[in-house]
Amino acid sequence: MAAEGPTDRELAESRQFLVGSLPRRLETNAGIANFLQMVEFFDLGMDYDVRVPELLGRVTRDEVHAAARAVLDPSRAAVVVAGPYIGTP
Question: Using one digit for the tens of pLDDT, what is the confidence trace for 60-76?
C-alpha cells in the first residue's frame, strides 16, 4: 500500500464497504451512542451519516497513497498468527 497505493478497484470497494457498513454500526443503542460520541468529539455535524458517501467520494487515490506512505513503515510491522499454526517449532 505504501509503495504503490491502492488500485482503483480497492479504493472503490473500500468506499462501498464504509458506506454500506454505516447502517450496521447504528443497529444497537451502544452503536448509536458510540457514533454520536464520535460525531460530537470530532465536530462532524449531526448530518455526518448522510454526508459520508459524498465525503468518501472526494477522497482520491493519490490522497490515500500519500497517507499510506506517511504512516505505513514495513520495517516496524509485526507478523501475527491467529489460530492454530502448523509448522516447525
Answer: 999 999 999 999 998 88
